[in-house]
Amino acid sequence: MKDLRRYLVLKYIQYLVLSSANALSTFLGLLGSLYTMIILQSAKVSSKSTTVLISSLAKADILVSVSVVSEMVIRIFDVRVSSPAFTSALLQNLLTANTHISCLLLSCVALEAYLITFSPTESRHLRTVKNARLTSRIIWILVMAECVLFQTDDFLKATSTSAPTRNPCALLFHFSSVAAALLRSLSYFLGIILRIFNVYIYYKIFFSVSNR
């Protein structure tokens, strides 16, 4: 469990403290996720709601691995892709999806820590493995739907032409562009709210434990 706590600290620093990703934090995050996935296979680790959330958090780094490895293969072996703009947007959207999934899962872990600290008995029926799996599944579905929308918007921008405004393709382009812009703005403000939420949660927990 100490290793899992260290992993959570690493992930909090990577996604909720640092303003942007860098090569070192990404590399350490991937190593931490790989090590955590190995640990979670051990029979010594009990299946609890927290471990379910941590497992989903570690699996989210698969998106980073795909993006990083694909970019390295393209650069090192000078692989020519049919649509460089589409591929570049896809790799970036995978990184964005990873960030959003990780931030939401880390916030779920923080909320669970709050419930364990202040309402351990009353919240026991909420902190179940079934609910944790359902929450993780919902987060993955929503964020991947967001990724598809962003990718569709990037694709339409790359292939847009001066078509009539009443053309179905033009209407689709306009709708996806507006929806993607709104979602990007919402994601930005949600990220700020989640940072404040996590700081508040651990502030309350820290002073509660200190007073005891």
UniProtKB/TrEMBL annotation:
InterPro entries cross-referenced by the UniProt entry: GPCR_Rhodpsn, GPCR_Rhodpsn_7TM
Record's bilayer topology term: Multi-pass membrane protein
A family per Pfam: 7tm_1
TM stretches of this protein: 12-40, 94-114, 134-152, 172-203
Signal peptide: none
PROSITE patterns: G_PROTEIN_RECEP_F1_2 (PS50262)
GO BP term, pick one: positive regulation of Rho protein signal transduction
Top-level taxon of origin: Eukaryota
Record GO cellular component, one term: plasma membrane
Subcellular location as annotated: Membrane
Alphabetical keyword list: G-protein coupled receptor, Glycoprotein, Membrane, Receptor, Transducer, Transmembrane, Transmembrane helix
Molecular functions per Gene Ontology: G protein-coupled receptor activity
SUPFAM superfamilies referenced in this protein's UniProt entry, alphabetically: Family A G protein-coupled receptor-like
Residue span, G-protein coupled receptors family 1 profile domain: 32-212
Protein name: Lysophosphatidic acid receptor 6
Species: Antrostomus carolinensis (Chuck-will's-widow)
